Amino acid sequence: MTRIYVDTEFSDFTDTQLISLGAVAEGGQEFYVELDPLPTSTSEFVQSHVLPLLEGGHHQIQRDKFNEHFAAWAAQFNDPVLISDSGWDLAMVRAGFGRTPTQQAGILNYFDLRLTLITIPALSAEAQVLFNETLAQQFAADPRQHHALVDARALKAAVEAVEAQLGLSQQSADTQAPAASRKQANLYSD
């Protein structure tokens, strides 16, 4: 299994259309695309905080080619698991593959590629503080918050910081085994 941390930017919460996706694998490999054409209608927030961060150029791909590009990149990994901090990101990944944009965790199959989509579980109070502090540090170092790749990098750093601080191994965090120690369980419950 290979963890891939993902973040998306999208038009708004009503006529939701994918604008960009950033992904960072646990080994540091990165993927970033912006879909062209942009949605014709976006929220004021997106106009102010997302669109100014778009890079254009070689990052732009035709909207209908998203699934091919992302699948080609993700196929290099063994059993890819996409991890997000929001169900909206899962919905946007599904929409990019032409699927119904649901926010629930699940499996997305695309030809021979099988993607597992999950959101991070609820964090304990201790873990949430560390998670938020790590995000703040990441955005202090790269203040382009709401750039999908920057946000994916920050998510990866925050999850890894929580696991390292609380002594979680990747395997125990992934499986959330019932036999996990009290310290490991601190990540997931209050």
Describe this structure in words.
By secondary structure, this protein is an alpha/beta fold. Strand 1 (2-10) and strand 2 form a beta hairpin. The protein is 37% helix and 23% strand. It is globular.
Mean pLDDT across every amino acid position? 90
Largest sheet: 7 strands, mixed
What is the number of strand segments?
7
The quaternary state of the protein chains shown equals: single chain
| Class inferred from helices and paired strands | alpha/beta
- Radius of gyration, in Å, reads 16 Å
Strand order of the largest sheet: 4-3-2-1-5-7-6
Number of helices: 7
Poorly predicted sequence stretches spanning 5 or more consecutive residues: 171-190
Give the distance, in angstroms, between the N- and C-terminal Cα atoms.
28 Å
Order of helices and strands: EEEHEHEHEEHHHH
Helical amount? 25-40%
Shape: globular
Q: Short description, anyone?
A:
The chain contains seven helices and seven strands; from the N terminus they run βββαβαβαββαααα. The C terminus is likely disordered.
